[in-house]
Automatic annotation (TrEMBL):
Protein name: TIR domain-containing protein
Domain TIR residues, every copy: 106-209
GO biological process, one term: signal transduction
Length: 264
């Protein structure tokens, strides 16, 4: 499918408008001036048909001839939609970062148990969540992606077992996330999930309300209240904002690609 409509339309309308303006201005005059105007118009068109752009069957012929000429002059400007789309997607893919209802932070030693809990919570409460170690792309380390993980998650669930304090990564996250007030209010997004009542609680979590996994009644009563419709909507709104931002970026790049191919 060829894309040359904008150039064709612009060139065609500009030329016709210019000719009509000249024609109407000249033919507002009378007598011999009208004859002169006809001669001037004939010179402008380089044709013996002075009235070629006047409304008649001749107008259609003139337009058709102009289209052919424009297409001939701009043959290199004919684009293939599939090629343009492919180049655009290579330049900037139409994907946004996945947004989560929660990210579960745990020690690597607790990853298996935390993953089982994460899957259960997602299934039971219709949530989108991941364990921390799933969110780290190949070739990246935890600390380089931590800010994005926090930004892309509505809530941060800390899986706290007796092994939590032994994890340097968990200690770093807890210390930096909870001891420092951040603009996104990350400390207000924190929900500690403690495996047992006797599990040692890290100092940074002492003053934060906790849920105990060993108490099914407490957990089943309180956990759903942490993920209300309003909280779930946060993920949707973040996703839509990212899509809108990406769409604007893709439009700008698409325009650049087309202009480059047209030699503009």
């Amino acid at each position: 499918m060829a894309v040359n409509g904008s150039i064709l339309k612009k060139s065609l309308l500009s030329h016709i408008s210019e000719m009509l303006q000249k024609t109407f201005k000249k033919f507002q005059k009378s007598g011999t001036e009208c004859d002169k105007a006809s001669q001037n118009l004939e010179d402008d068109f380089d044709t013996c048909n002075t009235y070629a752009t006047w409304p008649s069957s001749k107008l259609r012929t003139t337009i058709e001839d102009m289209i052919k000429e424009i297409l001939k002059e701009n043959s290199k400007a004919v684009l293939n939609v599939i090629d343009v789309e492919s180049e655009l997607n290579n330049e900037i893919p139409a994907d946004v970062e996945e947004q989560l209802d929660f990210c579960m932070i745990c020690s690597q030693e607790d990853q298996i148990e935390a993953t089982e809990l994460q899957k259960s919570l997602c299934s039971q409460y219709d949530l989108v969540g991941k364990v921390l170690w799933e969110c780290i792309p190949l070739g990246r380390d935890l600390f380089s992606v931590l800010e994005d993980i926090i930004k892309n998650s509505s809530r941060l669930l800390f899986y706290i077992s007796e092994r939590f304090d032994d994890s340097d990564a968990c200690a770093y996250i807890a210390r930096n996330l909870l001891m420092e007030q951040d603009k996104d209010g990350a400390n207000r997004k924190v929900i500690p999930l403690v495996t047992q009542f006797e599990t040692p609680i890290p100092e940074t979590f002492q003053l934060i309300d906790k849920l105990y996994l060993s108490s099914n009644l407490q957990f089943q009563f309180r956990f759903p209240a942490l993920f209300t419709t309003e909280v779930k909507l946060e993920k949707v709104l973040r996703t839509e904002r990212l899509k809108k931002k990406l769409d604007n970026e893709r439009k700008s790049i698409l325009q650049t690609i087309i202009q480059k191919k047209l030699g503009i």
